[in-house]
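Researcher: Please generate the 3D structure of the following complex. Treat every line as part of one assembly.
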Amino acid sequence: MSDKKRLDLEYSQIESDKMRINVGPQHPSTHGVLRLEVEVDGEIVTEVIPHLGYLHRSFEKHCEKMTYPQVMPYIDRLDYISAMNNEWPYVMALEKLMDIKVPEKVDYIRVILAELNRIANHQIAVATFGLDAGAFTPFLFFFRDREYILWILEKMSGARLLYNYFRVGGLAADVYPGFKEDCLNIVKQVRKTNAEVMDLLIYNSIFIKRSANVGILRPDVAINFACSGPVLRGSGVKYDLRKDEPYSIYDRFDFDIPVGKGEVGVVGDCWDRNMVRVQEMEQSCRIIEQAIAQMPMEGDVSALVPKRIKPPKGEVYMRAENPKGDLGFYIVSNGTDKPERLKARGASFVNLSVIPEISKGYMFADLILILGSIDIVLGEVDR
Amino acid sequence: MENVNFLYELFGKNIISVTLIVSLPLVFVLIYALIAILAELKVSAWIQERLGPMRTGPWGILQPIAEVVKLIQKEDITPDKSSKLLYNLAPFVIFTGAYAAFAVIPFSEYFVPSGINLGLFYVFAIGSISALGIVMGGWASNNKYSLMGAMRSVSQLISYEIPAAMAILSVVVLASSMNMQEINHQQTGWFWNWNLFGGPGSWTKIWIIPFTVLLTFIYFISSLAETNRVPFDIPEGESELVAGFHTEYSGMKFAMFFFAEYANMFVVAAILTTIFLGGWNSPFDTFLQGPIWGSFWFVLKAFSVVLVQIWIRWTLPRYRVDQLMYVGWKVLLPLSFVSFLAISFYVMLK
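Model: Done. Output below.
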């Protein structure tokens, strides 16, 4: 018997006890009230079972008792980090059902606000991912910038986080004077911070060691689990609804879809998913710049819409590219002012399902990183 | 060498002077810990483009006191299923380990609590006591996170004590002494006499300077690991282990852990200062050289090292547990062996 074989045999005879740990629902790194039941062998994760439902608020059932405009604040609370993006597919679905054509100006404002909110969302995602890796300082750099974005959104809608700003066929309010300048300043600031964080965090050798080659999500697995958004693109799949199924006016803008390339590790590792988000911020900046240049300042911010939103009988499904992935709304209308049934397809919920698949065999510390790289928000997971 | 201690000179060797000598470092540690906490708050704020505490007292200087008062007021919780004796003992064991090391730290030419000949050896032996305290606390808490933190801490301490020991051993070979005061005396003069720059000697020492600089860095990195500081803070890595071995501790016992961490930071900084940065010697020969200025230089140097530790903490991410072992065993250890051999050669040829 060779030495290697004897060693393997000896190791196989060592009985090691496995330990079950509850990570969450109160844990600093589960990004909300998620509970992961983790079985570890020493430091190695052998099994992960996510338990959901700690933030369940019966969103879909509530919607059946609400008129269409009343549903809007609930939709803000799905993915509360990117509420502007949430509202969009909902109003688009109703506009499609009622056959309303929104004015061009509204589309431009919607694009700008959604992209601003996308930047804010990705800033949180990258920042908390760095925090999971132990880097505290980039977290605050990003939060400082995010605050400027939230100021713009607050000036537009009156709220910092949960805007309730989109309306069927338009918007709640027109842009304020100086909106364009504010947006361009933000774009400048976002680019500056990203360049700084590139050195400080993304290409930091410890950070690369931690996040490269960890939590590898193969493209076929990602597609089988119906992942979307940066999680799917991080695995090298070029899929973005803004390009593949252009809604609103996205076909007018020139932007790229960043995908994971395995620059420092394997395609689809945590570093790639994170990098996709950083690059998407730059693409959002490009979209904002183009939209600002093309946007008409005259005109109304609402189409002609009846006072009571009463879509005709029928059903509609509309989806949009949320920062976290595809967010779709399926609405069944019975001709009254309340939906018969409203189903939301949240990206976080679907993306989370991939966790047990990709985190087996890694260290316990990696599990936290993998969870951070998926970028979930529990408001959308539990609904 | 005659162990000179100004309190013995003043009062003679009696119960008063001994008590004073034992308690003087404690007073120092208390004041230092408050300053270090403030420094940590302020330095982190500057790094992150914040102001830091500004409301408690002018420029926020009373913030550390407010924090200590807050911690004292907090409820002292002992988990039901914990092992009471070990759980309550652990914070004090850790602090004892940190404080015992002050016994041989030479603050000045005329003040070292105990100038034993095996000073460096003693510091090293006593430094491991904190690992015992961490294991006690982690095990007795009856918490899985604490247990994992304690396990990690022990493996980390063992791995990093060896490179640190090699670095110290190299200096012992270079200085032919384990007495910290003696090592300090040897480095008197301009700053190029420091062991960082190869110690005192003629121009032939130039070829060992890269090795001594390397050893300084090895010791510094190992000391970060021994005090559980970023990037080696995996025993308390809050992103996965909540707070590691002190997850269950609250109130005054938590404050003891906190206090011991800062005391430990100073201990490793003081050792680094003593063996590599010339201790209480002025960098510029006789400029401001003397027993009182000596303590100034010593505290200045040691505190600068502490500031570097804080700076690193707020800049770098954290290593993973296996990568930490890799750095310790496969990078630092071989390098420290090579440097040790080189310095031994130099001493042999001298």
